[in-house]
Design goal:
This protein is mostly helical and 252 residues long. 50% of the residues lie in helices and 2% in strands. The N terminus is likely disordered.
Length: 252
């Protein structure tokens, strides 16, 4: 059975969503509306009515409104952009790890041995579902890491920039699936704990080669900066390989 990533981030649930100070939001009904609206916007979906055979009075033309159809060429372009972003994240993190103050051994972890039978997706629908899972997980993981990384130009600025890119990816992919931009319409995204992140990517890894990464989620320190970067690099290795294995084949 092919393992697939869940799209929902940790701490979120199905059903009505409530947030202190905000009214209750009926999650499932809004999700059904989004899916219906997405289907209606896809080119080729045409609403047809049966002919009555009677002459009908000509209706006055309505003013042209905005068109929200999903352009397949644009989808292809943006999916390729996501692939290129994830590929670029790997050397960005590797470069930050090559530092005389980095206590990790090795300083830059090698690429893990991947389970390609789970990583390769059979069609676009399966790919988009898995990609949204990766990006929602990445967004929540980066968000959690920001709590513990020192706020320096050298590390914090890069971590924030990577986090926002992951979140943009996730919102776009969620919308293609007819889902809310943030799972369950949450106005504040919950961080994802390290253990949950590792459990979600575990089906795609045969051997991490070196020990699984970890970092202190509370106490910032110089050494912890490198442990956070190491954890994010492990995740980016898998994401980059996922896109490289699927995008050129499914989005030509």
């Amino acid at each position: 059975m092919r393992a697939e990533l869940t799209i929902q981030s940790e701490g979120q649930r199905t059903g009505d969503h409530t947030t202190p100070g905000h009214p209750a939001v009926p999650g499932p009904s809004r999700r059904r509306f989004l899916r219906s609206a997405t289907m209606a916007a896809v080119p080729g979906v045409i609403a047809a009515s049966s002919a009555t055979g009677l002459a009908q009075p000509k209706a006055k033309p309505k003013p042209a409104g905005p068109t929200f159809g999903i352009n397949p060429v644009l989808i292809r372009t943006l999916v390729h952009e996501i692939m290129n972003d994830e590929a670029a994240h790997v050397p960005i993190l590797q470069e930050k790890l090559v530092d005389k103050d980095n206590p990790l051994t090795p300083q830059v972890r090698p690429m893990p041995v991947l389970n390609m039978s789970n990583l390769v997706q059979r069609n676009q629908a399966a790919f988009l579902q898995a990609a949204a899972g990766f990006e929602n997980t990445g967004s929540g993981t980066y968000g959690g890491a920001l709590f513990a990384i020192q706020q320096t130009d050298e590390y914090f600025r890069v971590a924030v920039g990577l986090c926002t890119v992951e979140s943009r990816h996730a919102a776009f992919l969620n919308s293609l699936l007819g889902e809310s931009l943030v799972p369950d319409f949450a106005p504040v995204e919950a961080p994802i704990e390290q253990g949950i992140t590792l459990s979600r990517v575990a089906p795609f890894v045969l051997d991490p080669v070196v020990d699984l990464p970890s970092f202190d989620p509370i106490n910032a320190s110089d050494a912890n900066n490198f442990r956070i970067l190491d954890f994010l690099l492990f995740l980016e290795y898998i994401e980059a390989a996922f896109y490289e294995a699927n995008v050129p084949r499914l989005f030509r």
